[in-house]
Specification:
With 254 residues, the chain is α/β, with parallel strands linked by helices. The chain contains eight helices and seven strands; from the N terminus they run ααβαβαββαβαβαβα.
């Protein structure tokens, strides 16, 4: 009983602290700043952003053809999609691709693990988060980069990937997949294959895009649905990547 009370008190304290931190952040956003404060803060931010771009360009330029794998940090080792991601990364390496992930736990860890154990390039683009996401241990030491800025990190995903694979995930995964789709749709980047793995997970979203966004509101074009492919297995996912490049007689060479 005492342990339960202690646990309840700990949860209440944590929630209260989170609420206080959130309130302070909101108040901070509305606080009036003088010119020197603005100039100093913005100047240092510019230098930090530049340093992240420079480090990313230097390390990733030597990585060779890679495929980015997106997915949930909450997937547990040994779970269905964790194991599928390990197999997927291994198959990509066998076909000559390196693997890029967000560098954290869950699906990201599985991707890096599969690539490393298959003897391939394993890149981790980690991000500093309030809950302190730490990088996984399966990233090549010279290909681990930790970012403060999400937008710089996303530039690296897009600039150095020859394909994107979406495993089941949450807001972060949706953000990364839709970022790639938007850039390809608007022709800001070249056409690269985008593969979503797991019909049981993604089909509801795809149905909504077709039935509501496209058919009911006409906010998408019919051709937009050709920008991605839905599959169920790692074998199918890698086949889609290979099929895409075989049309142009291209294959990865290290």
């Amino acid at each position: 009983m005492e342990k339960m009370k202690d646990k309840t008190s700990e949860i209440r304290y944590t929630n209260a602290k989170l609420a206080l931190d959130e309130e302070q952040e909101i108040r901070k956003a509305f606080k009036q700043k003088d010119w020197n404060e603005i100039k100093t803060a913005d100047s240092w931010a510019i230098f930090k952003i530049m340093s992240e771009f420079v480090e990313g360009f230097e390390k990733l330029a030597k990585s060779g053809p890679c495929v980015s794998i997106f997915g949930s940090a909450r997937a547990k080792p040994g779970s269905k999609y964790y194991k599928m991601t390990e197999e997927l990364a291994s198959r990509l390496v066998q076909q000559g691709y390196g693997v890029i992930t967000g560098g954290g736990p869950g699906i990201m860890e599985a991707g890096n693990k599969g690539a490393t154990e298959a003897g391939g390039t394993s890149v981790g683009l980690n991000i500093v988060l309030p809950h302190e996401q730490s990088h996984n241990i399966f990233i090549d030491p010279d290909k681990l980069i930790t970012f403060d800025y999400f937008f710089v990190r996303k530039v690296m995903f897009v600039r150095y990937s020859q394909g994107f694979i979406g495993m089941p995930g949450g807001f972060g995964t949706f953000d990364e997949i839709f970022e790639a789709l938007t850039l390809i749709q608007t022709k800001k980047i070249g056409r690269f294959p985008i593969v979503l793995v797991g019909r049981e997970y993604w089909s509801g979203l795809v149905d909504w895009l077709k039935q509501v966004v496209y058919e009911e509101f006409n906010y998408l074009s019919e051709g937009d649905f050709d920008l991605f492919t839905l599959v169920d297995t790692p074998k199918e996912a890698v086949a889609r990547i290979d099929e895409f490049y075989s049309k142009y007689l291209l294959s990865p060479n290290f």
